[in-house]
Design brief:
The complex is a heterotrimer of chains A (324), B (431) and C (340). Chain A is mostly helical and 324 residues long. Chain A has 13 helices and no strands. In chain A, 49% of the residues are buried. Chain C is built from 13 helices and no strands.
């Protein structure tokens, strides 16, 4: 499993880079943002919070950067990401409440989008040269629409105008939170429009990618061979698609960072109580500890998802598997 | 060997015994031929003189090969009542026949004519070799005939017929150019299998060898159980000299030679009547190439399929094939029994080709090769396409295109004006 | 953030490994540098037209805008009319003027960031691909790390730490965006350079003792032009998306007019819920159109690079005019003169 070990190595390194950047940024940015922040906060929030901030960023500790870096790692290992300024709560607690919403929304809609897009792309690639090709220029338009703009339009049309979907939030304010059907149903209902937004804005990419790969693969000899063998058409398409999907899966890890970035902003449009919404609050209030915590959590989640995609790829491509 | 398998071997052998055409004496001994070649000395010039054909009356009128017309009459006798009196064609031994086939790349005035008016007949249980330089249109011809040619390939004329004669079935003629997709799917692989030129890339990279066999058997032998399919796959693989435990391997785990053998086993999986092999050994080293060819000869003898074997290596064909057709610039320029072609080539191009390969057996000839390079198909010279490279070119060659006409009897045809009777035939083309 | 698709759209990799695109390889040795000539398909023409219009808008936008984009002198929330083509905001600002003025900042930041990122990816990718060895390992690792880190969250953190005056500086913002956007291009260019490195003409230049820098600039880079152009288009698309997203969240200065800040103010004032479509739809459409134009141009480049994507010889029109037995498809070669 050399290939997987290499990927894990890369992700560990990436995580280390992300953590280090996170530590270094406040210290290296011009204009001493931490001092300014502490100055601004004094008197506005409780002294405990100011103290926590000072501790986190090493203000007044008169420690060297290296010592601070070591202390930063210690804190991390204890799951301590600092204290949110606006919410007056530990960042880890705040994130623990919001991350599941985001993973649920973005995870599910990404899988749906990938599967649907791959199927449509397969058919488009197979039936190249027909009217279906007209989908291409249209899909470039949808590819270029920012997720949050798409969300806004859907919100206006289907939410506030037609009233087909509930808008704003992740569940009805009238149900009590808990593991019972009324709540789950409400969550599913409220999730539809945001999920639809993510699916519709990301699907064009999967369609295009799969379509182009299909066109290339159908040109391969083993596909012609499948025809020469008199296999049913369904089987011939499967031969090609099974090979063409591999680069799509390999590309998930490249696309995921961008996809998550885009999808986070969808939460913001729908006031969905996930990380994206939190991000906006953090930006608005210059809540640096929260902002940095969010950055780390998103990075780790994306890396984990990448690893899953890599494992799937490995399972599907015997050539790489053999290398290990 | 299962019972089914044995039965078919017997049947195939019967077919071969009963249908050997009387005309092709030099190939009667089939696989023993290479040995025969070694012992038969160069034919003396005097005997060759006797076989120079009678001048063909009416020359150009024979532009359409007589063979093509005969066959047309067989399938639709009512259309050509006047020709019913021609010598009865031995239709029961033809299994795959290409008549007057033309294939273009593209449509309209910009089309590239890659194959023009080609006639080929494959006899039951025989090996027909198709030779020619790279780019002469060999692959185009067979892929077009089997409707496997990709865009922008278009069949622009002619006919392709399969004379199907499966056990327990009435003899049946399938017109491949008129067949529906469903019909084609049915006869593909079960009656005609094609080993593509790039056979090394023809196996699905992500499937196992076993599932390659399994897919074929599942599609064409619905009655087979999973277990029988697996047994059959193992049996086939063993037949081509690969251990059955390689069934679980993927193509990338096999060597080039092994992949080629797998392809051959795959091609024989349904015991088709026709096997088309497009340069199956080109990418392999000489030793492996030899082994595979010998294996093919053995399999053909045992199973009795008819084989259309494409290569640019004429010396290989002389050992393997019963009959050889030579292609140049999209046309068939000479066709004859293998040893006849070897001993007495009639077309200057064939002569040149024979001199550009060292023969595998037999006496060595002086290698001269052919000057110049094959024409660009987009700009084939007027008249005889070979003229710019031909040592014997005459005035007439620049204006008229020679047709493929019978020379020393029905079984030797060439398309060259040297044999029209108007001029003295150079010694080396009259042996 | 629609640039998400860049990777998938091009995943078949315009990397001319020789067996994949033999035509390219062969032509390549014959005529070493092919000029980048875009196929003249309707798609490409549409792309050129769209991009052209927006380039003009970028130059003249602020000059032809009828009003000042910030002036609140008009009645609030006017519907589109002859006086205000795109209506007004709740603050009584003319939206059409905001759109025209905003075009410049949006496109310039996208262009600058795309340019910086492409230069970075060329330097890093070509160096890694050409020199190979430990240099390659190191540079590839760096690009892979940058690819794995989600760009937007990092951008948000970095930008929010920027001093206020830098948050309105287009060039600094563009440079920061470029830092997160170069890695993909570097990867593609590295792979391509590696395959070029072993081609005859590069080999030949090495043998006659050309200096390395000279070989890279006169032999390798010209052959990268098509891929470079395609990489630039997609990077620019990513950069515009990133800039607009940053502005929409409000990380960059909300006082600088661009299409992202227009969307920020629309969102902040709940334009969607108030049914004021004319406020947020125009900037969104403009962003999508720019992206579409760039992507369509890229179609042309892709088809130039990968001939298999080009519409094959038999176009639909020709097929319809000829008497063919069937539409050409795999395993059913059409027969002329035998219409079904
Ligand atoms: N897709 C295509 N479009 C246009 N011309 C083509 C196409 N494919 C092949 N040709 C041309 O058709 C001619 C015949 O090609 P073909 O592949 O049949 O040759 P071949 O005899 O099989 O050669 P080889 O021994 O190299 O396999 C060649 O001149 C080739 O350039
Ligand atoms: S027809 Fe003429 S040019 Fe052609 S091969 Fe014969 S002699 Fe040569
Ligand atoms: Mg060929």
């Amino acid at each position: 499993m050399l290939a997987i070990a290499r990927r894990i190595g890369l992700y560990v390194l990436t995580a280390w880079v992300a953590i280090t950047v996170n530590f270094v940024l406040p210290h290296l940015m011009p204009g001493n943002p931490i001092d300014q922040l502490v100055g601004k906060l004094t008197g506005r929030v409780t002294p405990q919070i100011v103290h926590a901030i000072e501790l986190q960023f090493g203000v007044g500790l008169h420690q060297g950067l290296v010592a601070q870096y070591v202390r930063y790692w210690e804190q991390l290992f204890h799951g301590n990401l600092g204290t949110s300024i606006t919410l007056s709560a530990p960042v880890s607690t705040v994130l623990g409440q919001t991350v599941p919403w985001t993973i649920g929304l973005i995870g599910i809609s990404t899988i749906v989008s990938f599967v649907l897009g791959t199927i449509v792309g397969t058919l488009l690639g197979w039936r190249r040269g027909t009217v279906l090709d007209a989908v291409l220029p249209i899909s470039t338009f949808f590819q270029a629409v920012p997720y949050f703009f798409f969300g806004t339009v859907l919100l206006l049309v289907f939410g506030s105008h037609l009233g087909w979907f509930p808008i704003l939030g992740a569940y009805s304010p009238n149900v009590t939170v808990g593991w019972h059907w009324a709540f789950v149903a409400s969550v599913l209902r409220y999730g539809q429009l945001p999920a639809l937004t993510v699916v519709l804005s990301s699907i064009a990419g999967w369609i295009m990618g799969m379509r182009n790969m299909m066109v290339t693969t159908v040109g391969e000899d083993f596909v012609l061979m499948a025809v020469a063998k008199g296999l049913p058409k369904r089987k011939v398409i499967a031969y090609a698609a099974r090979n063409a999907v591999l680069p799509s899966i390999a590309n998930i890890s490249l696309a995921l960072g961008l996809l998550v970035s885009g999808a986070l902003l969808v939460e913001l449009v729908f006031n969905y109580p996930g990380v994206g919404d939190l991000l906006l609050q953090a930006v608005e209030n210059e809540d640096y500890p929260l902002l940095q915590g969010i950055f780390l959590v998103i990075t780790f989640t994306v890396l984990a998802a990448n690893l899953i995609a890599d494992v799937i790829y490995l399972a599907l491509d015997p050539r790489i598997r053999g290398e290990a | 060997m299962t019972g089914v398998w044995d039965d078919d071997v017997v049947e195939a052998a019967d077919v071969r015994a009963s249908s050997a055409p009387a005309g092709i004496t030099e190939t009667q001994d089939g696989p023993g031929m290479p040995a025969a070649l070694e012992t038969v000395p160069e034919t003396a010039p005097e005997t060759a003189l006797e076989t120079v054909p009678e001048p063909v009356p009416g020359g150009p009128a024979l532009a359409v090969s007589s063979r093509g017309r005969d066959k047309g009459a067989v399938v639709t006798p009512s259309e050509r009542p006047g020709e019913a009196l021609l010598p009865a064609p031995s239709e029961d031994d033809a299994v795959f026949e290409i008549c007057d086939l033309s294939i273009d790349y593209g449509l309209g005035p910009g089309a590239l004519h890659a194959v023009r008016h080609a006639d080929l007949m494959l006899r039951r249980g025989r090996v027909l070799g198709l030779a020619g330089e790279s780019g002469s249109g060999k692959s185009t011809l067979v892929y077009g005939a089997t409707r496997l040619l990709r865009q922008p390939g278009v069949v622009s004329g002619g006919s392709v017929r399969l004379y199907s004669r499966r056990r327990g079935e009435e003899g049946r003629v399938v017109d491949l150019l008129a067949a529906s997709e469903r019909e084609l799917r049915r006869i593909r692989w079960s009656e005609i299998s094609v080993v593509l030129q790039s056979a090394l890339n023809a196996l699905n990279p992500v499937s196992t060898i076993e599932s390659e066999f399994d897919d074929v058997l599942k599609a064409h032998r619905r009655e087979m159980s999973r277990k029988t399919r697996r047994e059959r796959a193992a049996e086939l693989l063993t037949m081509v000299g690969i251990n059955a435990d390689r069934l679980r391997d993927h193509p990338h785990e096999l060597s080039g030679g092994q992949r080629q053998r797998v392809m051959i086993a795959l091609a024989l999986a349904l015991e088709p009547q026709v096997v088309i092999m497009d340069e199956p050994t080109t990418a392999l080293d000489v030793v492996t190439q030899r082994e595979i060819i010998e294996e093919l000869i053995g399999l053909r003898d045992r199973l009795g399929f008819a084989m259309l074997f494409i290569t640019h290596d004429l010396s290989l064909l002389i050992e393997l094939a019963d009959e050889i057709a030579v292609m140049y610039a999209g046309r068939i320029v000479e066709r004859a029994g293998a040893s006849t072609l070897y001993r007495s080539p009639r077309h200057p191009y064939t002569h040149g080709l024979l001199n550009s390969f060292p023969p595998m057996h037999g006496e060595t000839r002086r290698m001269t090769g052919i000057p110049g390079s094959p024409p660009d198909l987009a700009a084939v010279p007027a008249g005889c396409a070979f003229r710019p490279r031909c040592l014997y070119a005459m005035e007439r060659c620049g204006t008229e295109a020679p047709a493929l006409v019978p020379l020393d009897g029905e079984e030797h045809e060439a398309a060259c004006f040297l044999h029209s009777g108007d001029v003295a035939v150079p010694g080396e083309l009259a042996r | 953030m629609s640039a998400i698709t860049e990777t998938t759209a091009r995943q078949e990799g315009p990397l001319p490994e020789t067996p994949e695109t033999p035509a390219l390889a062969r032509e390549d040795t014959a005529r070493r540098h092919r000029a980048l000539v875009l196929p003249r398909s309707p798609k490409v023409i549409l792309g050129v037209v769209i991009v052209g219009i927006f380039v003009i808008l970028m130059v003249v936008g602020p000059w032809v805008a009828p009003y000042s984009p910030s002036s609140t002198q008009f009645a609030a929330s006017l519907h589109p009319s002859a006086a205000h083509w795109l209506g007004t905001t709740v603050l009584g600002q003319d939206i059409f003027s905001q759109l025209l003025v905003g075009a410049r900042a949006t496109l310039i930041v996208g262009f600058v960031a795309g340019l910086i990122a492409t230069v970075l990816s060329t330097v890093i990718g070509v160096t890694a691909g050409y020199i190979g060895g430990p240099t390659d390992d190191g540079l590839s690792l760096v690009s892979n790390v940058f690819l794995a880190i989600p760009g937007l969250p990092l951008l948000i953190v970095v930008e929010s730490y920027l001093p206020a005056h830098d948050q309105s500086n287009s060039f600094i913002i563009g440079a920061v965006i470029a830092l997160t956007g170069w890695a993909w291009g570097a990867r593609v260019l590295r792979a391509l350079t590696m395959s070029l490195r072993n081609r005859d003409f590069v080999e030949a230049a090495r043998i006659i003792g050309e200096r390395r820098a000279r070989i890279i600039f006169s032999e390798v880079v010209p052959n990268l032009l098509a891929v470079l152009a395609s990489s630039f288009l997609f990077t620019m698309l990513y950069c515009i998306g990133a800039y607009v997203a940053l502005a929409y969240i409000g990380v960059t200065s909300t006082a600088v007019w661009n299409w992202g800040t227009m969307l920020y103010w629309a969102q902040a004032n709940n334009a969607a819920l108030a049914n004021q479509w004319w406020w947020f739809v125009p900037p969104g459409i403009c962003i999508a159109l720019v992206g579409m134009g760039l992507a369509l141009l890229n179609f042309g480049i892709d088809e130039f690079i990968n001939p298999r994507l080009r519409a094959a010889g038999l176009t639909r029109k020709v097929v319809r005019r000829s008497r063919l037995s069937n539409r050409p498809r795999l395993g059913l070669t059409p027969v002329l003169g035998r219409p079904a």
